[in-house]
């Protein structure tokens, strides 16, 4: 148990270092990247709570992020702007305007409630069928966001969210989420769920109600995704449903998988690594576009490199960078080993 | 009467296409327990082959054959790139590599061809219509029905009567046992990918024949359809995939005819909700396949 505290401490220190470091450098671009990184961190760690503990791949995560972003948007866009931003909104919603912090909470709760309702039957499914249905769920959520114009302004861009997310807030939320993920991992539910990940039959034989355990983890993951979505919405302030689809899903799954889905440390490491790689590649891409060799625009290069990296990691180290031990655990083991040698 | 004929033709042509898509996916899943996310990209490959060869002046049928051949080639490539290196590792690892490979192909199309839709050459017959019993139907629907009947029969024959098919089914039931009895594993896996690619290629031509253009994301809808059809039908059963495909087409077509314009936008959401209901009732899918065996 002691090494879990150490892990939490180290991961929070990393988050703080990112936040404070980029504040100290004082370049606005770095601030943006750092905030983006911390928001991705919230999402990836959220996904880890489900995927890491249950061992099931979930594609629906970004859908719940979208749900959170739109919930928070509808609740916080100033009443006088709603006529413009959301012309078809139902009348009784037009007067609602609550503080972004409350709205963020509401976003998480709504995402969790939706997840609780739709996921209950899905958690009974075995590995491949559950992956496929989670993929279908992503499509359903996307379809709804794309078409329920009253709440989302349809496929058009929704604007007018108050910009309330800044670096410190993102860092605080990220730190809280990391602690929650670690607590969940060590909780009774988390332990049973991890047992079911290792051996479904044995865990069930020992009395673990696997669908129910998975269900709880899924709700928690959706809650965190909703919060992350709200956080992102108030950072970016205008977005369209296509921000919550396959491209982003690919990105957060890459982050989690390269870092190591089974550990929170892996989720954090993967997010940091991929964010830097992504920004670097994007920079290269736009540099290539600026020099304008050849006729067309360079698009998709970033994704190609990331996809190749993902395949390479799967071949060489299928568990990711941190396959099964948290950083605190690794360090305490290393120290103990040194002591026994000495 | 005309309406009934129209409805039946719609269901059969859509269902035929859906069934072929699902079959291509389930052949891989049944044997290898691999959910091939790159399946939709095989359809994309077929489409782009048609586009790229459109300037060559070849007869259309040759182009179509070329497109199918490319889909087969890329199907086998999927095996080497995304599956073989991680075969012995976890199911999740395989899923992720195929997802990554799918992204790789899509973005390669984006980078090297264009993000914009490209026209695909189609023979005139694809845009003609005929009248059957008062119902006006595009000829391409009839072509789809005919092609799906022929292909489903051919696959059924292959699976039941030929050595290759029997070996594949044996591998799907118990991979280790089949290997011990002398079934060459790599050959079986490669032929499964080739067959899957072949089905994807044919479906690709029929599917893109409906739309007329090809974009990098063209494979997503067929992939989803195949996913859902296989989940409804039972993940490990070939007849299940076909039944699932036709059932999904029935649901889709019925919704098309009954929903109002406002609700039609949400059709996918309705379809998938129905799927969830079916799964509540039968988590294994409608038709249960052979018990799952080990993959390596």
From TrEMBL, chain A:
GO terms for cellular component: plasma membrane. It is found in: Cell membrane. It is a multi-pass membrane protein. The keyword Ligase does not apply. It comes from the Bacteria. PANTHER family: HIGH-AFFINITY BRANCHED-CHAIN AMINO ACID TRANSPORT PROTEIN BRAE, HIGH-AFFINITY BRANCHED-CHAIN AMINO ACID TRANSPORT SYSTEM PERMEASE. This is Amino acid/amide ABC transporter membrane protein 2 (HAAT family).
TrEMBL record, chain B:
CDD domains: TM_PBP1_LivH_like (cd06582). GO terms for biological process: amino acid transport. It is a multi-pass membrane protein. One of its GO terms (cellular component) is plasma membrane. InterPro entries: ABC_transp_permease, BCAA_transport_permease. GO terms for molecular function: transmembrane transporter activity. It is found in: Cell membrane. Pfam families: BPD_transp_2. The keyword ATP-binding does not apply. Keywords: Amino-acid transport, Cell membrane, Membrane, Transmembrane, Transmembrane helix, Transport. The chain crosses the membrane at residues 7-32, 58-78, 90-113, 142-159, 187-208, 223-251, 263-281. Belongs to the binding-protein-dependent transport system permease family. LivHM subfamily. This is Amino acid/amide ABC transporter membrane protein 1 (HAAT family). It comes from Shinella granuli.
């Amino acid at each position: 148990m002691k090494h879990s505290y150490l892990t939490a401490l180290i991961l929070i220190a990393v988050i703080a270092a990112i936040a404070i470091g980029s504040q100290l450098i004082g370049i606005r671009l770095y601030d943006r990247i750092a905030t983006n990184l911390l928001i991705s961190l919230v999402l990836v760690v959220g996904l880890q709570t489900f995927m890491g503990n249950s061992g099931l791949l979930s594609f629906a995560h970004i859908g719940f992020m979208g749900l959170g972003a739109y919930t928070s948007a509808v609740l916080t866009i100033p009443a006088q702007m709603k006529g413009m931003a959301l012309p078809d909104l139902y009348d009784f919603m037009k007067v609602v305007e609550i503080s972004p912090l409350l709205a963020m909470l509401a976003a998480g709760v709504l995402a969790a409630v939706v997840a609780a309702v739709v996921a209950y039957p899905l958690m009974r499914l075995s590995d491949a069928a559950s992956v496929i249905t989670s993929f279908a769920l992503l499509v359903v959520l996307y379809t709804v966001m794309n078409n329920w114009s009253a709440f989302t302004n349809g496929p058009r861009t929704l604007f007018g969210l108050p910009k309330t997310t800044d670096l410190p807030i993102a860092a605080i939320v990220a730190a809280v989420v990391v602690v929650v993920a670690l607590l969940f991992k060590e909780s009774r539910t988390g332990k049973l769920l991890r047992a079911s990940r290792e051996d479904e039959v044995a865990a069930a034989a020992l009395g673990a109600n696997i669908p129910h355990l998975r269900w709880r983890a899924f709700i928690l993951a959706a809650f965190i995704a909703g919060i992350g979505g709200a956080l992102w919405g108030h950072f970016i302030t205008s977005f369209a449903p296509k921000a919550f689809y396959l491209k982003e899903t690919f990105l957060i799954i890459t982050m989690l998988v390269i870092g190591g889905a089974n550990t929170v440390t892996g989720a954090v490491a993967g997010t940091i690594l991929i964010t830097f790689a992504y920004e670097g590649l994007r920079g290269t891409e736009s540099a290539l576009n600026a020099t304008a060799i050849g006729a067309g625009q360079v698009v998709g290069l970033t994704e190609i490199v990331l996809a190749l990296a993902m395949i390479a990691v799967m071949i060489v180290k299928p568990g990711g960078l941190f396959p099964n031990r948290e950083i605190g655990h690794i360090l305490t083991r290393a120290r103990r080993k040194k002591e026994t040698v000495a | 009467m005309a309406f009934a004929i129209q409805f039946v033709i719609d269901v059969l042509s859509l269902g035929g296409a859906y069934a072929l898509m699902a079959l291509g996916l389930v052949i891989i899943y049944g044997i290898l327990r691999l959910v091939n996310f790159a399946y939709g990209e095989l359809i994309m490959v077929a489409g782009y082959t048609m586009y790229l060869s459109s300037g060559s002046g070849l007869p259309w049928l040759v182009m179509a054959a070329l497109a199918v051949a490319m889909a087969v080639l890329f199907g086998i490539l999927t095996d080497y790139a995304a599956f073989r290196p991680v075969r012995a590792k976890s199911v999740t690892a395989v899923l992720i590599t195929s997802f990554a490979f799918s992204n790789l192909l899509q973005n390669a199309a984006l980078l090297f061809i264009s993000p914009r839709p490209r026209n695909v050459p189609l023979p005139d017959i694809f845009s003609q219509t005929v009248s059957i019993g008062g119902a006006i139907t595009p000829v391409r629907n009839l072509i789809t029905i005919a092609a799906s009947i022929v292909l489903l029969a051919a696959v059924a024959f292959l699976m039941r009567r030929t050595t290759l098919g029997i070996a594949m089914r044996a591998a799907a039931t118990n991979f280790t046992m089949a290997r011990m009895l002398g079934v060459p594993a790599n050959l079986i896996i490669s032929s499964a990918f080739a067959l899957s690619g072949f089905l994807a290629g044919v479906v690709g031509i029929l599917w893109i024949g409906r739309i007329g253009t090809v974009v990098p994301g063209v494979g997503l809808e067929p992939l989803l359809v195949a996913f859902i059809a296989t989940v409804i039908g039972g993940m490990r059963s070939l007849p299940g995939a076909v039944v699932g495909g036709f059932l999904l087409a029935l649901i889709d077509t019925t919704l098309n005819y009954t929903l109002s314009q406002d609700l039609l936008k949400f059709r996918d959401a309705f379809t998938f909700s129905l799927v969830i209901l079916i799964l509540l009732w039968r988590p294994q899918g409608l038709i249960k396949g052979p018990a799952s065996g080990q993959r390596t």
